[in-house]
Structures are given as structure tokens and as C-alpha cells.
């Protein structure tokens, strides 16, 4: 057999350590006769149980979590690949690995530490974004009150909070500065007045086309904005 010859049934290459098979049929250990065997090792054409094959101290780690498997095998002095024959596909397929229990525990700790580190970083990011949102909202509300001194403070804050959500989520933080332009602030206030202080939303619900609905409420919106631009705020 040359190096290029695949192992029987295209099993994994032999440098993965001992090859352990999950048998499809009821098999018993050729040495100690125990069985049926959940795992076996073929030695000289005969099945051996894990104990007889000196692998009985290893624990099974099913495939699925790649990082855990990689680390557990790296931590384990002795490990074995577990395969099962897939009849329809006509080949052996990897089911997991057998590793030392202590190695698995260390690997799990490392993966948990990674997950914990990621969680802490997410929390820091969330706190930073929240602080940015608070600053942005305050700046936006202040700009509204500067341009519309007659706008009630609660309304200014509501408009700013809404704009902040859009700023942080939809258009990104880099747009925050642009969003504070006079035109953008006026546009946000105008939209809020249209939705809250006029029947605009009801007209839309009744099926009035958007431009027609806007036309109908324009005078009311303009009146409120004029009032807010000049009046002394509440
Ligand atoms: Zn045995």
C-alpha cells in the first residue's frame, strides 16, 4: 500500500491516532468477549473493546463544536477519532473523538473563558453605545430647543430619542454629526408634528395617498412649526 492509497472505505487518515468505530452490527470484544460494543477498535482483523484496546479511560466528545474538539485533542496526550460507516454514502464518517477527561475539562474551561471574554466585550460595546446615544440625544434635543424655542421639552426629547435610535441603528454613528444639521433637525421636528399633531397617520390608514395626505395636513404642520419657532417654550 502506498501513501496515496486511501484507507478502506475512505476512512480518515491513520495519523489521527487510533481509529475507533461505532459498529452498525452487534459486535463483541475478541479478547474479553464483552459486548455488544458501542465502540470498538479493529486489531488484526478482530474487534476489541476500548478497555482491551487501552482506550477505556477516554471519554467521547461528539462532533459539532469545532473549537472544543480542537482544544480537547490538543490537550489530550492520547486521543482517537470515532467513525461510523454510513451505508447510503458508502463511507466512514466522523462522529467525534475520544479524549482524556481532564483534557476535555480544560478545553471546556478555555472555551468558556473565550465566551466570557466575548460577553464582556459585548457589554462594554453596549455601554459605550448607550453613552453615545445619551450624548447624541441630548445634543439633538438642545438643537431642537434652539431652533424651536416654543417646542415643549418633552416633545423635543421624544423627537431626539427617535432620531437617536435611527442614528445609532439605521444610519450609523458617523451620521450623527450630519443628523444635527439645521435642515435635518427641522425635518425631524416636522415629521413628528405631522404624525402626532395632525390626522396624517389616520389619513394614511384610510388609504389616502401619502402626497395627498401630506398636502391636507401641510397648513396645520406649518402653523405649529411657526408657533414653535417663535413662542417661548413650555
Ligand atoms: Zn475487551
UniProtKB/TrEMBL annotation:
Top-rank taxon, per record: Bacteria
InterPro entries the record matches: DUF2293
Residue ranges occupied by any DUF2293 domain in the UniProt entry: 143-229
Name of the protein in its database record: DUF2293 domain-containing protein
Species, as recorded: Streptomyces minutiscleroticus
Amino acid at each position: 500500500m502506498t501513501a496515496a492509497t486511501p484507507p478502506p472505505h475512505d476512512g480518515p487518515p491513520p495519523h489521527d491516532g487510533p481509529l475507533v468505530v461505532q459498529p452498525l452490527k452487534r459486535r463483541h470484544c475478541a479478547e474479553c468477549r464483552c459486548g455488544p460494543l458501542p465502540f470498538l477498535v479493529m486489531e488484526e482483523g478482530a474487534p476489541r473493546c476500548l478497555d482491551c484496546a487501552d482506550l477505556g479511560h477516554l471519554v467521547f466528545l461528539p462532533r459539532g463544536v469545532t473549537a472544543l474538539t480542537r482544544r480537547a485533542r490538543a490537550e489530550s496526550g492520547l486521543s482517537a477519532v470515532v467513525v461510523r460507516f454510513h451505508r447510503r454514502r458508502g463511507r466512514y464518517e466522523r462522529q467525534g473523538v475520544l479524549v482524556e477527561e481532564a483534557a476535555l475539562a480544560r478545553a471546556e474551561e478555555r472555551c468558556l473563558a473565550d465566551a466570557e471574554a466575548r460577553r464582556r466585550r459585548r457589554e462594554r460595546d453596549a455601554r459605550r453605545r448607550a453613552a453615545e446615544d445619551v450624548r447624541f440625544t441630548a445634543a439633538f434635543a438642545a438643537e431642537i430647543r434652539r431652533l424651536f424655542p416654543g417646542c415643549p421639552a418633552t416633545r423635543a426629547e421624544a423627537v431626539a430619542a427617535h432620531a437617536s435610535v435611527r442614528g445609532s441603528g439605521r444610519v450609523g454613528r458617523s451620521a450623527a454629526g450630519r443628523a444635527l444639521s439645521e435642515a435635518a433637525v427641522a425635518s425631524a421636528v416636522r415629521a413628528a408634528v405631522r404624525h402626532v399633531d395632525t390626522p396624517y397617520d389616520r389619513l394614511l390608514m384610510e388609504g389616502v395617498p401619502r402626497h395627498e395626505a401630506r398636502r391636507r395636513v401641510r397648513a396645520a404642520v406649518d402653523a405649529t412649526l411657526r408657533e414653535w419657532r417663535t413662542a417661548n417654550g413650555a
